[in-house]
């Protein structure tokens, strides 16, 4: 794989996990299609290591080690065929420069700290590339570890982008410390998320949409859990409002994430489940969503799409 001139790589330094996707461009009709070659995921939990605005030493070290492993796979890649982007955990950290200096050395490539709006644009580019629908308006909801991106677009064109500094990891740490779940914490977390979404909702509602897509790991995790445990309405796939409510009741019944017995839930995702669930419930409520389709693609596909368009 090393040095293969047809390959591109996207590295995503997220708040929960670092991911790398290597892909190639395959000609299709008048355009091209991104074909996935290899994907790696490292559960770095960078946002969990934020103490008083700075990333702690353990989080920094987990990040550097993950990037060193990615760097080994990227040896021989030309500079213009790799793009690494860092999102909210690095964006918000007081010691971001300390982290980045070593991070770039371990990876072997420059790392761009992107704005919330740039993140939203890239997420939409990834979704638009793989989810057909040239005419329909679609709302894309991307709940990450440290921020949530909302994009309204038509075909390949994003029309409205918003980034809100609330995410599954940050909400988990704030309201569900050490995995404890109470009715009061769920209500308070959902109230705050609802207030944040309401600030931008009017502009989205004014344009309207026909389809709702969830493009993050949070959306994929929730869809998988709802389906595997038969929590959705009438055996539907994807994410339904009724399914989210039933899942929140399951969480309240046990009172702690470690007591949860849910099919389809990986242990490393337990800590982000309550925060991700609350944010999704708030998004469904504010935007009047009854059903969401999870998308396998998002930021990394968007980064690859940009790289391939330049070549």
UniProtKB/TrEMBL annotation:
It comes from the Bacteria. It holds the Pfam family Ppx-GppA. CDD domains: ASKHA_NBD_EcPPX-GppA-like. Residues 29-311 form the Ppx/GppA phosphatase N-terminal domain. GO terms for molecular function: pyrophosphatase activity. This is Ppx/GppA family phosphatase. It comes from Pseudomonas viciae. The lineage of its organism: Bacteria, Pseudomonadati, Pseudomonadota, Gammaproteobacteria, Pseudomonadales.
């Amino acid at each position: 794989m090393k040095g293969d001139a047809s390959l591109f790589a996207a590295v995503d330094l997220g708040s929960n996990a670092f991911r790398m996707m290597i892909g190639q461009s395959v000609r299709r009709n008048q355009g091209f299609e991104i074909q996935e070659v290899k994907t790696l995921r490292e559960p770095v939990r960078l946002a969990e290591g934020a103490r008083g605005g700075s990333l702690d030493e353990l989080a920094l070290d987990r990040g550097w080690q993950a990037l060193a492993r990615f760097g080994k796979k990227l040896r021989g890649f030309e500079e213009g065929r790799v793009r690494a982007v860092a999102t909210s955990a690095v964006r918000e950290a007081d010691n971001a420069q300390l982290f980045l200096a070593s991070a770039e050395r371990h990876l072997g490539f420059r790392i761009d700290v992107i704005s919330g709006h740039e993140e939203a644009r890239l997420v939409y580019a990834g979704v638009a590339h793989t989810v057909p629908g040239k005419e329909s308006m679609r709302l894309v909801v991307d709940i990450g570890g440290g921020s949530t991106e909302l994009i309204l677009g038509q075909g390949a064109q994003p029309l409205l982008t918003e980034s809100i500094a609330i995410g599954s990891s940050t909400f988990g740490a704030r309201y569900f410390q050490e995995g404890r779940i109470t009715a009061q914490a769920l209500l308070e977390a959902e109230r705050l998320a609802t207030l944040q979404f309401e600030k931008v909702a009017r502009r989205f509602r004014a344009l309207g949409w026909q389809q709702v897509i969830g493009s993050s790991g949070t959306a994929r995790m929730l869809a998988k859990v709802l389906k595997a445990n038969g929590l959705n309405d009438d055996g539907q796939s994807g994410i339904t409002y009724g399914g989210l409510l039933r899942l929140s009741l399951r969480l309240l019944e046990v009172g702690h994430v470690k007591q949860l017995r849910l099919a389809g839930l990986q242990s490393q995702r337990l800590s982000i489940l309550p925060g991700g669930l609350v944010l999704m419930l708030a998004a469904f409520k504010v935007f009047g969503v009854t059903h969401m389709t999870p998308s396998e693609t998002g930021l990394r596909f968007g980064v690859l799409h940009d790289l391939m368009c330049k070549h």
